[in-house]
Amino acid sequence: MDDLDQLFHEEPPPHSAMAGDDLKTPYDSVSFQSHFYLSVAIEHLQAIQTFYRATERTLPPFSFYSLARASIESAAYGIWILSGNKRQKRVRRSLKITYDNSSDVATLACRLGVPYDLENVRKRLTEIQAMIPGNRQYRLSSRSTTITSMLSETDKIVDNSVMSGADAWRICSGITHANKSIASKVLETSKISGTETETSSSYLVTTSVTMIAAVVSAAIEYTDHLSELIVERSTPNSSEARS
Q1: Hey, is 239 helix, strand or coil?
Q2: In terms of domain of life, where is this protein from (predicted)?
Q3: Element spanning 189, H or E
Q4: Which of 1, 28, 97, 214 is spaced 20 to 30 A from 57 at the CA atom?
């Protein structure tokens, strides 16, 4: 992690793929995006660890899934960008995410009374896109890539030992959005004696240690892979810098 810690505080080294990508993304650089995604992924994992230690290894039945979901999703965005084998692909993906996010930023800025020129931002991003010959045929306004499609791609890259990122994300999303059908399949329940009636019973819901371990493991592996990609793309290499 020493190499990664150093990269967090420095510009990408010259003659690295990351430095070359940054030159093509002056508005919202690839290095800034990827480091931000990694920071978000790591912090959510740290929150799980901090809570677990502070409560003397207590496992809440629901909230850990939300934290693991955020970590997986954030890392997936970074992996999706950096896994492009050519610069034009990495830059195109980076610009597309920034373009798609701009509408959400504009909506929030309007609600908060903060100035934000959506038209100018999108115009600038489109100009940047047009400067890269291999990307001119792609429209930033085209349909967005869904997170499930993104996870299907990143799962082909990340070596998940227990559970795929897509499956872990679906489970975590179900719990996060209070989907009782999914919760009934992944959480452990036990009937509370003395609560039975002719039509119903009360149940105690507890955490499935096996399941939470599986989704957190997927989140850790995704985060580790993103950190490895950042180090790899930030390593000086003349031939890679031109890719």
Answers
A1: helix
A2: Bacteria
A3: strand 188-191
A4: 1
**What would the pLDDT profile of 35-70 be if each residue is shown by its tens digit?**
999 999 999 999 999 999 998 777 888 899 999 999
Query: Which residues are 204's β-sheet partners?
Result: 190
pLDDT digits (tens, 9 = 90+) for 175-222: 999 998 898 888 887 777 777 777 777 777 777 889 999 999 999 999
Residues 88, 134: contact at Cβ < 8 Å? Answer: yes
Range of the domain at 67: 2-241
Domain count, the chain: 1
Q: Which residues contact 226 (CB under 8 A, 6 or more apart)?
A: 34, 37, 38, 41, 75, 78, 79, 82
Do the beta carbons of residue 158 and residue 165 sit within 8 Å?
A: yes
| Burial (CB count within 10 angstroms: exposed 0-12, middle 13-18, buried 19+), residue 147 | middle
Q: At residue 214, what is the residue type?
A: A
Residues 6+ apart with CB under 8 A from 86: 134, 243
Burial class (CB in 10 A: 0-12, 13-18, 19+), 233: buried
Question: Are 173 and 155 in contact, with CB atoms under 8 Å apart?
Answer: no
> Quick check: 88 and 96 in contact, CB under 8 A?
no
